[in-house]
Amino acid sequence: GESVGLHLPTLSVQEGDNSIINCAYSNSASDYFIWYKQESGKGPQFIIDIRSNMDKRQGQRVTVLLNKTVKHLSLQIAATQPGDSAVYFCAEGDGSNYQLIWGAGTKLIIKP
Amino acid sequence: GAVVSQHPSWVICKSGTSVKIECRSLDFQATTMFWYRQFPKKSLMLMATSNEGSKATYEQGVEKDKFLINHASLTLSTLTVTSAHPEDSSFYICSARPRGYDEQYFGPGTRLTVT
Fold it and tell me: What's the pLDDT at A2?
C-alpha cells in the first residue's frame, strides 16, 4: 500500500548544529504534509506543514522542504537545542477525508 | 489556542472491565476527531474517525464493538474500551480537526494498562 517512510530511524546531532530529518512519500495524490514532534509519553505536537503548491516553508527555527519530483520531504531545525530531543514524524494527507498517513518516525538525539 | 485535552492521562484496570477515555477540544469546535493507538517506539495507528453527530468510521481490523466511540458534541469524543484484555494495553491518543481547517491537534495521550 501507499505509505510514508523515513530514511533514518535515529539521528544524533551536536547541540548548536543544524538537524535535517528526511521523509519519503509514495502517494502522488497527497497535497498536504505535516511534521510532528513527539516527546516521550506525550501526544504529537504540530511543528509545521506545507501544501503541495509550495516547495519551502519556514517557521521559527524550522524549515520544511518539499520535492514533489522525487516525493521527498525534509525538516530542518536550526541551532538544535536539548529541548529538540524527540521523535519526529512526517505525515501526509490528500484532503479527501482528512486522514493522515504516518511515517515511522525519526528519533533525534542531541549531543552536548 | 487549539488545545486538546484527554482524561485520564493514565489508567490501570483489570481484565474484563471497561474503561472510558475522554477527548475534549478546549478552545475550538472539532468537526472531526480521530482516535489513534500507539505501541512503544512505533508510529501512530489510526483506529477510527469520528464526525460529530454521526457514527464513527473504523479502520480495518479495529473491532467497533470493543472500541466504542461517541462524538456527542463538537468539543467531546469518548473512546470506551469494553471487556479490556492485557493486549489492549497501549497509549491511546486523540486528535481534533477544527471546522474549516486541515490541521489536526493532538491530545496528550492516555496510557492504558490492563492487568
Answer: 40
